[in-house]
Amino acid sequence: MRSVYIQQPLEYQIDVEGESWNQGEVVKGQIRIRNMSSKTVAVKTSQIILAHGLKKAFKEGTMVPWEVLEKQVVAQDIALQAGSELTLGWNFNLSTDCPITDKQGGLYLLFGGDETLTEGGRLNLQINLHPILQNYLQTFTTQFRFLEKYQKRKSELTEVKLIPPDSREYPNMDYVLCFLRIHDEQLEAHYRFKMSGLGRTGEKMTVTKKNREIEQSIPQG
């Protein structure tokens, strides 16, 4: 993937190896800084920032409240001759519980000069759930025939909504919310089951709703 940002007299071009990544993988590539003027330019700071942003802010045209995860200063206090360029490598190690890409937002690479957070280029990254969690959820959808409705970020976890099949095995279950992550080499899972049942209010029978919650931690290795 590639993105270009021009901040006269400099042009920043970022190249990223790959199109999508799983939690826990490495995002890497190169950045090229080119002096487009006919004079030597002093470059104080050139940096790349890995940050989480919400799509809603982009649509509304408001300042994005970036949540910075990591920052790399790739060049500092250098002089670029007229028409010359500098190419530098960079990489970010994604944590195993970093935010995934969902409908609300995702991770971005921000790149440019001193004020990269407000005046710089940006490139949206497609981040998927950790492979261990993908396989874990596949057990629900294939073996137990649950339907996955969505995945979204929830604090430091990923929330997944699963709908049970229409069968006698789950007569009172409306859905289950799974809050998942891989952290410190352990699979952490918190389940919230939404259950329906019949209750009595005076002489009337009513449908009651209640939650049942289970937590577990499974070592990986």
Description:
It contains two helices and 15 strands. It has 221 residues and is mainly β. It has two domains: 2-128, Sandwich (Immunoglobulin-like), CATH 2.60.40; 131-219, no CATH class. The strands form four sheets. It has a five-stranded antiparallel beta sheet with strand order 11-12-13-14-15, covered by helices on one side. Strand 14 (186-201) and strand 15 (204-219) form a beta hairpin. The longest helix has 13 residues, at 131-143. The model has no long low-confidence stretch (mean pLDDT 92).
Strand content: over 45%
Look at the helices and sheets and give the structural class.
mainly beta
Strand order of the biggest β-sheet: 11-12-13-14-15
One letter per element, helices H and strands E, the order comes to EEEEEHEEEEEHEEEEE
CATH topology call of the largest domain:
Immunoglobulin-like
Report, as a whole number of angstroms, the end-to-end distance.
Answer: 33 Å
How many independent structural domains? 2
What does the main sheet amount to?
Answer: 5 strands, antiparallel
Bulk shape: elongated
Count of separate DSSP helical elements: 2
Q: What would you say the CATH architecture of the largest domain is?
A: Sandwich
CATH class of the largest domain reads Mainly Beta
* Proportion of residues in helical segments: under 10%
Structure summary, number of beta strands: 15
Give average pLDDT, whole number.
92
Weakly predicted, low-confidence segments: none
Rg computed from alpha carbons, rounded to a whole number of angstroms: 24 Å
